[in-house]
Amino acid sequence: MIETKVKAAASASALVTIIVWLIQTATDITVPAEVAAAGATVVIFLVGYLTPTRGATSGGDTAEDPGSE
Known about the structure:
69 residues; mainly alpha; 2 helices; 59% helix; 0% strand
C-alpha cells in the first residue's frame, strides 16, 4: 500500500503544475520552467515533511532501545 506521505507529495506536485498552468493561462505572466520546477520541489518537500507517517505517535521514535531491559 502506498504511504500517505507519497500520496500527499504526488498530489502536491500535480497541484503545483495546475497552478502554474492557470497563472500562465489567466495572466500575461510567463513562469520559467526552472522556477516552476523549483517551486514544485519546495512544495513537495513541505507537504511530505508535514504529512504524518501512518501509525506514528507524537512521542518520537517508537523503537525499543536495544540496550534497555
